[in-house]
């Protein structure tokens, strides 16, 4: 079924930035939103990226590598423009994620630290793209005081982190280590 941006019970599968745009994934679709516009565009994933799966778990944009990384199950796809990068998909273990982790539920590139945060429900890993190593694992409620529940999508935008748990989206200030607002998960989608 086609997702409805106005559905108050909408749970977003994944969110990533892409060269200034925000992309919100749900099922076989994603919305593209543009910062300068109130318009958004609903697109089939396969029409944009034919070689990646539907129903993805997580995504993030690497500003260092100008790539988008897509996660589903224990696999990772690296995208350069419309194309899957040679050598992908790879496994989560190629990033040092323990074999016991069956999927990443959310991911974001933290511009402040230069690290990638990989969420697995109530825990998160800090990944260093330069050294290609996991640096720590921590509980979400310790690393992000005030954020509750299992993280289902995450992204950084306008200097803030947005961590989604089901239909709730936490606007989080990493500098102040505090939740600024609790929003609906469809807050950035025009409705």
From TrEMBL:
<keyword id="KW-0677">Repeat</keyword>
<feature type="repeat" description="Hemopexin">
    <location>
        <begin position="101"/>
        <end position="147"/>
    </location>
</feature>
<keyword id="KW-0862">Zinc</keyword>
<keyword id="KW-0732">Signal</keyword>
<keyword id="KW-0865">Zymogen</keyword>
<protein>
    <submittedName>
        <fullName>Uncharacterized protein</fullName>
    </submittedName>
</protein>
<feature type="repeat" description="Hemopexin">
    <location>
        <begin position="53"/>
        <end position="99"/>
    </location>
</feature>
<dbReference type="GO" id="GO:0006508">
    <property type="term" value="P:proteolysis"/>
</dbReference>
<keyword id="KW-1015">Disulfide bond</keyword>
<feature type="repeat" description="Hemopexin">
    <location>
        <begin position="3"/>
        <end position="52"/>
    </location>
</feature>
<dbReference type="Pfam" id="PF00045">
    <property type="entry name" value="Hemopexin"/>
</dbReference>
<dbReference type="GO" id="GO:0046872">
    <property type="term" value="F:metal ion binding"/>
</dbReference>
<keyword id="KW-0645">Protease</keyword>
<dbReference type="InterPro" id="IPR036375">
    <property type="entry name" value="Hemopexin-like_dom_sf"/>
</dbReference>
<dbReference type="InterPro" id="IPR018487">
    <property type="entry name" value="Hemopexin-like_repeat"/>
</dbReference>
<dbReference type="InterPro" id="IPR000585">
    <property type="entry name" value="Hemopexin-like_dom"/>
</dbReference>
<keyword id="KW-0482">Metalloprotease</keyword>
<dbReference type="GO" id="GO:0008237">
    <property type="term" value="F:metallopeptidase activity"/>
</dbReference>
<keyword id="KW-0106">Calcium</keyword>
<keyword id="KW-0378">Hydrolase</keyword>
<keyword id="KW-0479">Metal-binding</keyword>
<dbReference type="InterPro" id="IPR018486">
    <property type="entry name" value="Hemopexin_CS"/>
</dbReference>
<comment type="similarity">
    <text>Belongs to the peptidase M10A family.</text>
</comment>
